[in-house]
Amino acid sequence: MHAEGDGREVGVSVYRNRYEQCPRCQLALEQSGSVQACSQCAGHWVSADVLREMAEAMQVPPRPVTIELDPHRGPKLPCPKCQVPMETWLLHGVAIDRCDGHGLWFDRTELQAVLYATTGRPIERAHEPIAVEVDSLAEVLTKDKRA
Q: Per residue, what are the HEC states of the chain?
């Protein structure tokens, strides 16, 4: 904010006139713990830091994880935040979309597959629940709700 010559303060508007939109459905994304999700296609918008935290929580016992992206050709979806076309990358064999400045887009089951792959288990078994990992992930996702 800054003051005008007559002493009145002039500032920036504090309301949002635009919400992050699903790059597939163009619906407003909803906050879901540490991530944002699309209620129609079940995609997830995740920051790189949150992805790393989730992957680390999936380790038994929890430990640091390196997130390595490999270039991949694919259609470019718009970033939910800035609308600039995102680059497509491979993360543990899963094609994901990434905006350098804002985050990563995961379609319906891609986030689950990537997180499961960080544990070293085959992706084909990603549907098999592992109680400790599921509990760790649930704790990370709900942490923001408590704050």
A: CEECCCCCEECCCCCCCCCCECCCCCCECEEECCEEECCCCCCEEECHHHHHHHHHHHCCCCCCCCCCCEECCCCCCECCCCCCECEEEEECCEEEEEECCCEEEECCCHHHHHHHHCCCCCHHHCCCCCHHHHHHHHHHHHHHHHC
Q: Which domain holds residue 98?
A: 18-146
State the pLDDT at residue 97.
Answer: 97
Answer whether residue 4 is part of any domain.
no
Please indicate, yes or no, if residue 118 is contained in any of the structural domains. yes
Count: domains in the chain = 1
Q: Is residue 73 part of a domain?
A: yes
The reply to whether the predicted model has a pTM over 0.85 is: no
* Higher pLDDT pick, 58 / 46: 46
| Pick from 128, 64, 69, 119: nearest CA to 94 | 69
Average pLDDT over residues 87-96: 94
